[in-house]
Amino acid sequence: MKIWYQSATEYGFDPVWDDYGKSLHEQCKRVARPDTEIHIEGIEVMIRDVTNYPAFKYYEKSQVINNIVRAEREGYDVVAIGCTLDLGLEEGRSLVNIPVVSIAESSFHMALMLGHLYAVVTSSMAFFNAFKQLTEKYGVASHYLPGPYVCPASEEEIALSLKNPEPLWKKFEAVARRAVDDGASVLLPFPTFYASLALKAGVRTIGDAAILDAVSVLVKTAEMMADLKAVGVAPSRCIGVYALQDETDQQRSLDRLRKVFRID
């Protein structure tokens, strides 16, 4: 099985993300089946603090969508979107025949199977607002403990902390303990950088609450969905859900759109 793991960082394009990419490879390899091959791909242009700016999030999403199409073309069995904003999830599912899964959607649903109330510990109020909207979109808001639980840090600060996780982890842990005190039984360290930080710190629980390893959940979900597709379980193609144009119409549409957009 071949998994295309799509990051929304500039991993592979900017050396500042090299340690993060290495950590991702380690996380994926640790949980993947022996016969699973995982390719991790970044995006060419990442806008700083993109969560604050919906317009620029659109341009990052377009890069993810291009790579989803590329993954199918290059023979991958499934795409795993490792960006906790789930960029390109719906669009990808309506463009390709291979399964497309995402880290936030899979983690939210897994949290419901592991505990009663779950909390997201994140790095900014912009991320908090985005994740709150996603819990409502995915129908899992009734078990979500909103907080907010924010441990401020830039994307670069979190990525660089993977060499020395202790200082940032202490700040993160203090915020996470507040969520546990409020009743959280499962903790989601988001964005994905924080999930890598938790793994590097070697911490699996805080109090009696489980820390969800979102990367592992994503990889195993990707494997499961590829297996299910092989036995005939596939996404709905109802109009307005993940409707897929037939190959001729899709190619015609993409050819027209190439006049305006960069489409690979």
Main beta sheet strand tally, sense and closure: 5 strands, mixed
Task: Provide mean pLDDT, rounded.
Answer: 91
Separation of termini? Answer: 24 Å
Task: Extract low-pLDDT stretches.
Answer: none
Number of strands: 9
User: What's the Cα radius of gyration?
Assistant: 18 Å
User: What count of helical segments does DSSP give?
Assistant: 10
SSE order:
EHEHEHEHEHEHHEHEEHH
What is the SS-derived class? alpha/beta
According to CATH, the fold-level topology of the largest domain is Rossmann fold
What is the CATH-assigned architecture of the largest domain?
3-Layer(aba) Sandwich
Spatial ordering of strands, largest sheet? 6-5-7-9-8
For this structure, what is the CATH class of the largest domain?
A: Alpha Beta
Overall, the morphology is globular
Helix content: 40-55%
User: What fraction of the residues are assigned to beta strands by DSSP?
Assistant: 5-15%
Count of folded domains:
2
